[in-house]
Amino acid sequence: MDSQVPEVGQVVEVRQRLYLVDHVISPPNPSDSLLVQLSCVDDDAQGQPLEVLWDHELDAQIVTGEAWDAIAKRGFDPTDRFAAYLNTLRWNCVTSTDPNLLQSPFRAGIRLDAYQLEPLRKALRRERGFGVNPWTTHSRFLISQRLLIDETYSSSLQDWLGTFRPGSLLILDEAHHAAPSSGQRYAIDSHITRAVRDLAPRFEHRLFLSATPHNGHSNSFSALLEILDPQRFCRGVKVSKKMLDDVMVRRLKEDLRKISGGFPERKIVQHTIENLSQEAPELRLVALLDEYGRTREHRLSGESRRTQSASGLLICGLQQRLFSSVEAFSRTLHVHRRTTEKQRNAVLSIQTTLAVQPDLLTSVLTSDDERSSLTEQEIATEEEAQFEVASAASAGNASAISEAELFARERKILDEMAEIAETTRALPDARIKTLVAWIKESMCADLGAVGAKWNNLRAIIFTEWEDTRRYLYQQLSAAISDSDRADARLAVFHGPTPADEREEIKTAFNSAPEQHPVRILIATDAAREGLNLQAHCWNVFHFDVPWNPSRMEQRNGRVDRKLQPNPEVYCHYFFYKQRPEDRVLQALVRKTKTIREELGSLSQVIDSKLDDLMKGGIRRSDVNSLVESIDTADLEKERRETVEEELEATREREIELRAQIERLSTLLERSQESIGFSKNHFRSALSCALEVMGAEPLKTAPNGHGPDRSAFPALDQRPGADPSWAETMDSLRAPRQRDQKFWEWRRTSPIRPVVFEDPGVVTEEVVQMHLEQRVVQRLLSRFMAQGFVHHDLSRACMAQTTDAVPRVLLIGRLALYGPGAARLHEELIPVTARWVDPQIRKGQLAPYGREAEAKTMTLLDTALLEKHAKAVSDVVLGQLQASAPRDVRELLPHLEARGADYAKDAIAKLEGRATTESQAMLNILEAQKKHLSETITKNENIEQLHLFNEEEHRQLESNRRYWAKRLVELGGEIKTEPDRIRALYQVRAQRIEPVGLVYLWPVTR
């Protein structure tokens, strides 16, 4: 043990690892030992904390020098192996001196487009701690928003997080659900608002995703932004564009497609159905249902509003199912007819009311609904129960008029509809015939012939209703029954589909058509969110048109998204020209397009307006007015102006977007040059890492389509392999089948080929390797641990060049550490010189000037990749190895001097960044305090307060109390936050670590 007492900021060696001293705590009694709090600085354990009793550690010592004398003692490393080691160190160098140098784009398996860097660039401008990777510090969890308001789940989550969890990340998708939404004049907090508001501050990092963050209420928008960043925003306080620009990236796909491509163009395809007989069930039943609705409406005109509302809801539900399919209509009509018969016979009380929420009459279950996991039969039973209750609740008062007059006309219409529906429910309707004709024309030219072959085209067919989904499957199965592999051409995705089977369907549908026979996916709206199905599909059919445009947009989004290989996607729907009601459905399709292209973020509010318009169903007499109302549906002027002022101003317009993408392209180029990352170096490094551990290197694999493939050895199946490799290698296998045992899966699932660039499509055929991939991290960590845990390398190399001059490079790594051994800055520092044989060397080696050094570094990059056939003689190798210790001694002072200069420059940049960011935070907090004070004054006497309802008034009072509390908190934060930020950039220790020695030897010698 070292007898010296360590000081804060020193580097010490404890338990064969290097640590930075964070704190030294003197003992209460002189006879006791010092308590020293440490943070590891070794690359393979960076930042790990340790507390030791200094006097009781056997090997504790203060590090005063570095192990430069160990370099080249064991000869020279192979060129490719040293290159792998050097590049791994370079790729893992970090710096906080320049916020515009990015690394994360090169640490993910994605296709990198410049415009994608703007969210990252803005995120990195936010003040934060360093050295913590949330993905490695904690597990990743996926939880529905519905469960956040369930105490069973939220309480345990809060216990795990505590009041604040450093290094944690909250990604909130569909974040607008957390914004206060109800209220006509003033948005009111919902349960989910309060739950997310309580949860979000416990996470260090927060990322909110939403296409519709603004609902027209200014106080709702500011409340959502406060949850995201409480230092910039405060609920109820007007949002400034400057503050919003710092945290929001808002774009439309259409804008990006015009400038840089990458997104398909959407084509709306209307399949017009005409020249049908007026007795066709799709026409006759719609006319009868309209007559039935008018008859009931007239009869119930004197009844209570509750009864009339129940009747309207009932007719609307029947109408939606009829527009979907006769099959769906027939079943619900049967339930309604049976209930009215019971009502007529007084089996049910005429006082029945809608005691339960009739949510299944006119809508389908979403994935967040706890009933979504019910079986198909259980969902049907609940749906029937709701129709039964609605039918009973809307029957009216039987005592007001004679039974015959009350029910005769309605019963006659019901009987006629039931007869038509029952006799035609299993027949192919005009849409089925049109769809089959399209399949024959586009997918299977010889459809109808035995063994008809399918081409590679795929399609998705959406429907809202389970009955229609079943009807579609039956009809299409019959239509394609004689074709090649007919039983494997259709797949079904709906609510009851188990999670494992959903993954199998997604994998199959995204597989290359040559590899999997599925061609058509029949899906309910259970598949309209969260699925990427664009790999080999660009046709979406809406067998029925949702009455909510957002649902239609979500369906289209399954294929109209990034990585869609086709330049166009086609969204199909059917239009009955002879059916007046279809003009309303046509208007809904138009509105979906308008919302996407023009209204953007307003869709959430427009949807609610359309829901109000459509909640009474489609009366044939009101078609013209309903079409006009849908076409002109928009926000009230005041709310629209609020949205445009607070949100739409942040959307980058074409000229600004072009300029931004140009800047980001330059930033990307600078970042790539700084990190020195290339796929060739990366592939070579992995091969060398495999060889170091005694495995076969990467080998070229047969190429299908896309980037070059490499075969990866099965490291878990080598004799004597570490058992833990099995789990690591699982990331390179094909996905496990449902109910497949792990041992069986590993035995039967070979390691997939790997690629080193984006395949361009969603595929399970290959695995794209990147720096954060599990196998890569484990392999390259061996290079990061050289000199600490592993000693496989000599850290010296002799490479050949076509240059005529022998050269030598001594490479060190400058490391600046902040609190907790956070790496504030790292960079590789070379010193280059012309090598002269020691026997004729008259003085010490003299470092090159800037121009000669630049040439030497270029020669190094080339030499480490190239292999020369002519081997260097053993005499030369021995001569260089003998010279290595002297060369290190002569060049090391120059390296240390250069390191001191580099450190001084880096510290100045860190101090500059600390000053800039602390001042920026001070400005943010002072501006927030000013705006909050103005808001408090403004809201002391609101002229329109008498227009607020009781709930809105309570919300405003709650906000007022919060404003007073927040104003006090801001006073404290103004004093503490700037100092906290400056402390993050304070350098606690600096080192120059040995990296290696390289000789560049001329091929001619």
Structure, explained:
The chain is α/β, with parallel strands linked by helices and 1005 residues long. Among the domains are: 11-64, no CATH class; 283-424, no CATH class; 431-650, Rossmann fold (3-Layer(aba) Sandwich); 678-770, no CATH class. Helices cover 44% and strands 12% of the residues. The protein contains 30 helices and 21 strands. Strand 12, helix 18 and strand 13 form a beta-alpha-beta unit. The radius of gyration is 35 Å and the shape is globular.
What's this entry about, in short?
By secondary structure, this protein is of the alpha/beta class.
Summary keywords:
single chain; Rossmann fold; 1005 residues; 21 strands; alpha/beta; 6-stranded parallel β-sheet; globular
* CATH class category label of the domain at 431-650: Alpha Beta
Report how far apart the termini are: 50 Å
Any low-confidence stretches, pLDDT <50, length ≥5?
A: 126-137, 347-356, 398-403
In which order are the strands of the major sheet placed?
8-13-12-9-11-10
CATH superfamily of the domain at 431-650: P-loop containing nucleotide triphosphate hydrolases
User: How large, in whole angstroms, is the Cα Rg?
Assistant: 35 Å
What's the number of extended β-strand segments? Answer: 21
Number of helices: 30
Instruction: Give the overall pLDDT as a whole number.
Output: 82
Main pleated sheet = 6 strands, parallel
Coarse morphology: globular
Share of helix among residues? 40-55%
CATH architecture title of the domain at 431-650: 3-Layer(aba) Sandwich
Percent strand: 5-15%
Class based on secondary structure composition and strand pairing? alpha/beta
Q: Per CATH, what is the topology of the domain at 431-650?
A: Rossmann fold
